[in-house]
Amino acid sequence: MLTWNSRRNVTWQECTIDAPLDPPISQTPQVAEDGTYFCTFSNSVLHRGATLTVNVTSEGREFQGTLTFCNSGKEGSGAVNFSCLIYDVRFLNCSWARGPAAPADVRYHLYMWASLHGNVSECAQYVLDPTGTRVGCHFDQLGEPQTTDNYFFLVNGTSNETDIQFLDFTPFVATEIEKYNPPANLTARNNGSYYVIQWDNPVTRFNISSHVLYYELDIQRKGSFSKRDPVFQRGENRNEYLMPSSAVTGVHTVRVRVRHVYGDAWSDWGPAQPFGFPEKNFTGFLVVLIGLVVGAVALSSMGLMFLCKRFSLKQKLFPPIPQVKRELAGSFTPTQEMAWDGDNPSAGSQEPEDFLTVEEMKLFVGGEAEMVGPAPALNPYENITAVRGRLGQ
């Protein structure tokens, strides 16, 4: 709040604040009951310092007054990396780090209020680091939630060695710093053409529209080294994602998380939900089959090589055809026929002749002889029995 008094009649006035990293803000001053003029810059960040200016027109003349605001204390002694997060609907955690130039005995203090004119309360449950320095705070009594809640924070500090710089912020919009619980009831079913993935909205502290929710789906194939790109979806659409069945080969998993569309705090990932069917392992079967065939061929080859060494392959594959002895073959050479009279050759036969006699065979059965018949015709190639004689003069 910037205040001043004017000694003359004023026809025009304006006040301005110019802070580093923020655009200048100007406004028309208000007048208090005692005639004091004032301007309130409610959302300005001052820990980096600021320049405040008053421009006045009085009796046709222009006047200007300037005031420089400084953050007293040793440079680098204030807290850094401040952040706050609502979680599990009703809890609030804030954290920060010790300033790089803070003395060893620095003692930080956190103050919070929920509206511009609300009650200011100091943290009741500080979180300490291993050296005993306050580096966080836990709030477990946030009061009844209102969609318009804004949280204001201020961190200052004390030390016996030096002044500690303070740290202030623009108001934290409560609905944007909530870390939601993971979406519940995640399911994946196949309707024949698509896998239909559905989920429920998370339970939130504030009664907000589903349009401000922002989801991320992580869909991956089990056992695959390549990663699919995430799927992002606004809450203004149905909590549903369709994945073509033709694009799903093998078992897949899907998980989902959520955040406020204007926030940075993602929820934790929900449990992964599997879907799809395992692929038939034709490759493994083919490898086994090829191995069996190769093994059988190798064993057969070894057996064949062994046989070839033990027996002549040529003799085994092409056995010799039996030949009739020359002496016997000559016996079957056609000769000139002659007529016999009883046991004597016909007259005029001068040359001795070779002859064969064929005798009847008798089979003795039970001590009695039984005539079987004449001996079968001789086969010149099997069991030849011949009686050779000579007939002469």
UniProtKB/TrEMBL annotation:
Gene3D superfamilies noted in UniProt: Immunoglobulins (2.60.40.10)
Transmembrane annotation, as ranges: 282-307
InterPro entries, alphabetized: FN3_dom, FN3_sf, Ig-like_fold, IL3Ra_N, Short_hematopoietin_rcpt_2_CS, TypeI_recpt_CBD
Location in the cell: Membrane
Alphabetic keyword roster: Glycoprotein, Membrane, Receptor, Signal, Transmembrane, Transmembrane helix
All residue ranges annotated as the Fibronectin type-III domain in the record: 182-280
Membrane topology reported for the UniProt record: Single-pass type I membrane protein
PANTHER family named in the record: CYTOKINE RECEPTOR (PTHR23037), INTERLEUKIN 5 RECEPTOR SUBUNIT ALPHA (PTHR23037:SF46)
Protein name stated in the entry: Granulocyte-macrophage colony-stimulating factor receptor subunit alpha-like isoform X3
Gene: LOC107034152
